[in-house]
Design goal:
The complex is a heterodimer.
Chain A (H helix, E strand, L loop, with lengths): L1 H30 L6 H19 L3 H22 L9 H23 L14 E3 L10 E3 H23 L1 H11 L1 H6 L4 H23 L10 H15 L4 H22 L4 H15 L12
Antiparallel strand pairs in A: 1-2
Chain B lengths: L5 E10 L2 E11 L4 E5 L6 H8 L7 E6 L2 E2 L5 H7 L1 E4 L11 H8 L8 H13 L1 H5 L10 H13 L5 E5 L7 H16 L3 E5 L3 H7 L2 E6 L2 E7 H6 L1 H15 L1
Parallel strand pairs in B: 3-8, 3-9, 6-7, 7-8
Antiparallel strand pairs in B: 1-2, 1-4, 4-5, 9-10
The chains are: A mainly alpha, B alpha/beta.
Bound molecules: adenosine-5'-diphosphate (ADP) and magnesium ion (MG).
Adenosine-5'-diphosphate binds next to strand 2 and helix 1 of chain B.
Chain lengths: ~290, ~240
């Protein structure tokens, strides 16, 4: 039963992780930009949700679309004004640039919000579901806030998939990812697609931040941890693929969950990066082994 | 005489400091099929890129139906009615055949009745694409990929369709099929500018031709006259025979 409980915890965690990684993977895949800002965007979304709840009483789950919209606007502006200038430069240049922007944003948040860890304490709390109340043979508990956050997170990833596959702008994003030159021959303005893609990536980060605000502590110091997770998930699941993000997210969640039980929770980040290194050595195309498909 | 649909006048263009095209002038009349021939590296692709706005010429002009499109950019040029089907097909892998075709209509909005009608029409023109409409475009054979690339171009509802290297790497039977289909497309009113290495195919398809050699137009005439010209025979048809033999 304990193993099952740990597995369930891991899956709940993994769903939320998938939403953190979705936007990061999209931006990396389409723009070939490793957006170091992504973790800070998650934190910014979480702060927005925190203040929306404590000051205005807006429930974090209701705030998800607003966080997405606000971060979309910020992402669009950052890309169009700044990142677009280095879009054709080698990947290290944009990495350095977004790293610099992250230092800036994290320090602005440190000044504005201080380094204290905060958390949205839902009132009343959502409580837990004791599965054995319904199925006596299965003795596990499920925290409702995690379950709800995971469900919304998966919905968010599904929405990203729908956007990419079923809308005209989504098709253009995939087309630009596959062949920038051919896309421009269709009249696609690649600079605008880049900006929109970056905006969507930021929107996903903001939405994920709002979703995890009732669960994880919020602090500017957390941005690197979120970035690290997004990075590991992309490598686990394969780059730029929505299904890969889901697989990678759940894989990381389950792994961390068991790792935390066996080695202690303080080692979960070490564990995921150890896994990352092993994977890069033995299976660089990711668990699914396919590359380049959204 | 009527006004040319496409008129390219004394274009000089290239890549950065490397100039490739020197005072190139060509024209395509409404409803015409024109071929552009020339050996590897002559500048055929560069000329198409200059017409479609990927490259901006250093001097000279590109006009469609009299309207100046020089340096207008690909988006405006596709909107105006010139579509460039690139060398090597360059379909979007990961997207289905239908999605590839819809990408051709990107600027027209995918949901409009006209676009849906054109999609049906393209699928009727290329029944093999209709059979594979939901398949990933990267799973198509070479000939089917070329059909899909041409279909994608047609989805923009162009007035001038430019095809780079129509037959490259395709089996002769498939090429015959494509030539026939292009003739039908042309009959319904679309002018075509086709770059073709296989001179026999080019001359069979087009009414008029231009010969490009190291960035300069060295001959332009009806395809019949070109086919009979000793220089062309020696330079291209002869070389073909040698290669084939
Ligand atoms: N992207 C490029 N950058 C620099 N030079 C190029 C590029 N593409 C083609 N060229 C040069 O331009 C010349 C003409 O090439 P191209 O137009 O592709 O010829 P063709 O299509 O007739 O084979 C060649 O010398 C080629 O090396
Ligand atoms: Mg060429």
């Amino acid at each position: 039963m304990l193993a099952l409980q740990i597995l369930v915890n891991g899956i709940l965690l993994g769903g939320i992780y998938a939403s953190i990684a979705g936007g990061f993977s999209l931006v990396w895949g389409v723009l070939n930009v490793i957006n170091i800002l992504h973790g800070s965007f998650v934190v910014l979304g979480a702060y927005m949700a925190f203040f929306a709840y404590t000051l205005l009483g807006i429930h974090p789950y209701l705030f998800v679309p607003i966080a997405a919209l606000l971060l979309f606007a910020i992402g669009l502006a950052v890309q169009y004004a700044i990142v677009n200038r280095v879009i054709d430069a080698p990947v290290l240049v944009s990495l350095t640039l977004t790293f610099g922007l992250t230092l800036f944003l994290d320090n602005v948040m440190l000044n504005a919000f201080k380094a204290d860890f905060r958390k949205v304490n839902l009132r009343p709390p959502l409580g837990i579901i004791d599965v054995s109340d319904y199925l006596p043979a299965i003795d596990i508990i499920v925290p409702v806030d995690r379950l709800a956050s995971m469900a919304f997170a998966i919905l968010l990833v599904a929405l990203l998939y729908w956007l990419l596959r079923r809308t005209s702008i989504g098709r253009a994003i995939v087309a630009v990812r596959m062949d920038r030159y051919a896309a421009s021959l269709m009249g696609v303005d690649t600079r605008i697609i880049f900006a929109v893609t970056f905006g969507i990536g930021a929107a996903m980060a903001g939405a994920a931040g709002a979703l995890l605000s009732p669960i994880f502590p919020i602090s500017p110091l957390a941005s690197t941890a979120y970035l690290g997770k997004a990075f590991v998930i992309c490598i686990l699941g394969g780059l730029g693929s929505v299904t890969g993000v889901l697989v990678g997210g759940v894989a990381l969640g389950v792994l961390e969950s068991f790792g935390a039980y066996i080695f202690g929770p303080e080692h979960s980040l070490t564990l995921s990066f150890t896994l990352l290194i092993l994977l890069l050595i033995f299976r660089p195309t990711g668990l699914l082994g396919k590359r380049g498909f959204i | 005489m009527s006004q040319p649909l496409l008129s390219v006048e004394t274009i000089n263009a290239g890549y950065g400091l490397v100039s490739v095209l020197h005072d190139v002038s060509i024209s395509v009349m409404p409803g015409e099929i024109v071929c552009l021939i020339g050996s590897n590296g002559a500048g055929k692709t560069t000329l198409l890129r200059t017409i479609s706005g990927v490259l901006t010429p250093a001097s000279g002009s590109v006009r469609l139906d009299g309207a100046d499109l020089t340096g207008a950019g690909t988006k405006a040029i596709v909107r105006a009615g010139i579509v460039h089907v690139p060398e090597g097909r360059r379909l979007f892998a990961g997207l289905s055949v239908r999605e590839n075709l819809l990408m051709g209509a990107y600027l027209r909005g995918a949901g409009t009745p006209e676009v849906r009608r054109d999609l049906d029409r393209v699928l009727a023109t290329f029944p093999r694409l209709a059979e594979r409409a939901s398949q990933d475009a990267s799973t198509l054979s070479g000939g089917e990929q070329q059909m899909c690339a041409i279909g994608r171009g047609l989805m923009a509802a162009p007035r001038l369709l430019m095809i780079d290297e129509l037959s490259l790497g395709l089996a002769p039977k498939v090429v015959d099929e494509l030539v026939e289909t292009l003739a039908a497309i042309n009959k319904s009113g679309t002018a075509i500018l086709v770059v073709e290495q296989d001179v026999a195919t080019a001359l069979a398809l087009a009414q008029r031709g231009f010969v490009l050699d190291t960035g300069r137009i060295v001959a332009s005439d009806s395809t019949r006259a070109l086919a009979e010209s000793p220089e062309i025979q020696k330079a291209y048809l002869g070389a073909e025979l040698e290669l084939a033999g």
